[in-house]
Predict the structure.
Amino acid sequence: MMDRAAAQYLTVGAACLFVFVLMALGVTGTWNLVAFDQAFAGWVAGWRNPALTDAMLAITSLGDGAYLRPMGALVVIALAMRRAWRPPVATATAFLLLPLLVNLIKSGIARTRPTIDLYDGADGFSFPSGHAANSALIYGAIAVLVFRSLTGPPRWIATVALALLALLIAASRVYVGAHWPSDALAGLALGGLLLTGLAAVLAHPSRPLATPRTTHVLLACFALTAPLYAWYALPFAHTFYEALS
C-alpha cells in the first residue's frame, strides 16, 4: 500500500502535469486559450508604471540563467557536503534536464512570444516560460533543503519567501511582455513537476539534506548576491524588454 508521503508527492505531481497538459492543449488549439491570454495580458499591462516596472525587471532578472546556474551549483555543493551521492546527483540531473526539456518543448510547439525577437534559437519561442520553470525548480529545491534542515520560524519564513519569489518571477514574465500568461503557468507546472519528483527522491533517507550551518551559508549567499545581480542587470533589462518602452 502507498504511504501518505508517496501519495502526497503523486497528487502534487499529477496536479502539475494536469496544468501543463491543459495549457499545452490550449496552445495547440484543442481549446480556446487565446481569449484568456489576451485578456489577462491586457489587464497586467494596465498596471505598468515606472516604479513597478523597476521592481518587475529586478524580479525577472533573478530567473536569468546567468544567475540561476551558479545558485544551482551552490545547491549541489551544499548537498554534496553530506557525503551522500544520491542527493547531489539527483539534484544536478534535474537542474540539467529541465532546460533541455524546456527547449525541446519550445521547438516542438514553436509559439510566438508577445514581444518578438527577444531571443534566438529555441529561446525565441514562448511556450513554456524557461524563467518560470527553472525558478520553480531551483528556488523550490532550495526551499526543500531549507525545510529539511532548519526548524522554527526561519524554516517557514525562508520556504515561503522562496516559493513567493518563484511565483513573482513567473508573473514578471507576463508583465515585461516576454510571455503569455499560459506560458508562465506551464513553466511553473513543468518546474513543479520535476521538483516534486526530486523531492520524492530526496525524501529517503529522512535525515537532513544539509547541516543548518550549510543551509544558512547558502541562504546568506542568495541574500547577498540576489540584490547585486538585480542591480547589475537592471540597465540592460530596461533596453531589452521592448514592451515596456
Q: What stands out?
A: The CA atoms of residues 38 and 133 lie 21 Å apart. DSSP finds nine helices and no strands in the chain. The chain has a mean pLDDT of 92.
